[in-house]
Design a protein that fits this description.
Shape of chain A: globular
Structural class of chain A: alpha/beta
Number of strands of chain B: 6
Shape of chain B: elongated
Strand content of chain A: 15-25%
Largest sheet of chain A: 7 strands, parallel
Radius of gyration of chain B: 17 Å
Helix content of chain A: 25-40%
Structural class of chain B: alpha+beta
Order of helices and strands of chain A: HEHEHEHEHEEHHEHEH
Helix content of chain B: 25-40%
Number of strands of chain A: 8
Distance between the termini of chain A: 65 Å
Distance between the termini of chain B: 31 Å
Strand order of the largest sheet of chain A: 4-3-5-2-6-7-8
Number of helices of chain B: 2
Largest interface: A-B, 40 and 38 residues
Strand content of chain B: 25-35%
Number of helices of chain A: 9
Oligomer: heterodimer
């Protein structure tokens, strides 16, 4: 490597050569969003879902907040009412896809390997590989358990839903504001454990309102079933409103 | 470590632009990173150095311009600098403050040969 400028070339440049090199330099204006490619692919995904009135919901949380357990209860309750499918995202294994598959709904697994989040291209790829027939139904995407990275990557989803369990600190929304600021609904999970914890629900709700005043909050336990009906109602209401919007948009 | 994926996007953008704008070597990469994004500038520099190896941007300096957050108050309509998402309006103390700047990341310009 050149010791003068560290340019990586296998020669030692003289001072003259360096001046000439500097004079060849020019500035190129770009002014483009670094995530523009992801946004374009996400838009393609969204258009695809819009075209057959599939409501897509991106579930995000820290690892262990109960995304997969909630999905098991959710797809079991929903599949009699509308078509449901799931895309599972994990660094490794297809354990979650097997759990969802056992509930009787189509499920695709994405393994991100070293990656800490799903991006729009990964989702686009499985959409091409798997048959997820979903006219007027709901496609759930369970993101990799992580409160930081998934917040930057639009998958094309219509709703981003963040889960937080009562076994986590009530100040999570303050500590990881980006994901709470970019989600439309918070689900507080594992509320059957509240009698055994020192989790302050009111303080948690105050923190949520501070970060995202428009965010709705649901409380439930996927194990005991408390609050689950409200979540199913929220999904049905959101889906029907979405399907109606799409049909209005699609009509001449 | 989403900075790795973001660095990969950056390299892809540089390579696309190299064809269209006719350059073969990149000396400096100037990016704007919003203070309210979840991108950590030192991690970004480290990831960029790793991802750029063997590309036309190898050894290029990554110049990160810090973009402060800006909020717009829904009550009084004024705009002001904010340090976090959960900001209140400093003028009327309104709690509904929309973030209008400082969450994104842009490739601003390149110094090329």
């Amino acid at each position: 490597m050149c010791n003068e400028c560290g340019c990586g070339e296998n020669v030692a440049h003289t001072e003259f050569a360096h001046d000439a090199r500097l004079s060849r330099e020019r500035v190129v204006q770009i002014q483009e969003d670094i995530l523009a490619h992801n946004s374009r692919v996400a838009l393609g995904n969204r258009r695809r879902w819009d075209a057959n009135s599939t409501l897509c919901i991106n579930l995000v949380s820290s690892p262990g907040a109960g995304k997969t357990t909630l999905l098991e209860s959710t797809v079991t309750a929903l599949q009699q009412r509308c078509p449901v499918a799931v895309i599972e995202g994990d660094q490794q294994t297809s354990r979650d896809a097997e759990r969802i598959g056992a509930c009787g709904v189509p499920c695709a697994q994405i393994n991100t390997g070293a990656g800490c989040h799903l991006d729009a291209s990964m989702v686009e790829k499985v959409l091409g590989q798997y048959d997820l027939p979903l006219s007027s139904g709901i496609l759930f995407i369970e993101n990799v358990g992580n409160l930081i990275c998934p917040s930057e990557f639009d998958l094309g989803e219509h709703q981003r839903v963040v889960l937080m369990s009562c076994t986590e600190g009530e100040d999570k929304p303050l500590k990881y504001p980006h994901i709470f600021a970019t989600s439309t609904l918070l689900i507080l999970t594992k509320i059957d454990l509240l009698p055994f914890l020192r989790f302050d629900v009111d303080a948690c709700l105050r923190h949520v309102a501070e970060i995202n005043p428009c965010m709705d909050v649901l409380r439930l336990s996927a194990y005991s079933g408390v609050g689950l009906a409200n979540w199913i109602d929220w999904l049905q209401t959101t889906r029907l409103a979405f399907v109606q919007r799409q049909s209005v948009r699609g009509s001449p | 470590m989403h900075e790795l994926a973001i660095s990969e996007s950056l390299i892809a953008m540089i390579e696309e632009n190299a064809v269209a704008r006719g350059f073969r070597r990149v000396r400096k990469v100037r990016v704007e990173i919003g203070r309210l994004s979840s991108v950590h500038a030192p991690s970004m520099r480290m990831c960029f150095a790793v991802v750029s190896r063997g590309t036309m941007a190898e050894h290029a300096e990554l110049d990160v311009i810090d973009v402060p957050g800006r909020g717009s108050c829904a009550s009084c309509g004024r705009q002001f600098e904010i340090a976090r998402h959960a900001a209140r309006c400093p003028h009327c103390m309104g709690a509904h403050v929309a973030v209008v700047e400082g969450t994104g990341m842009r490739l601003k310009e390149l110094v090329v040969e």
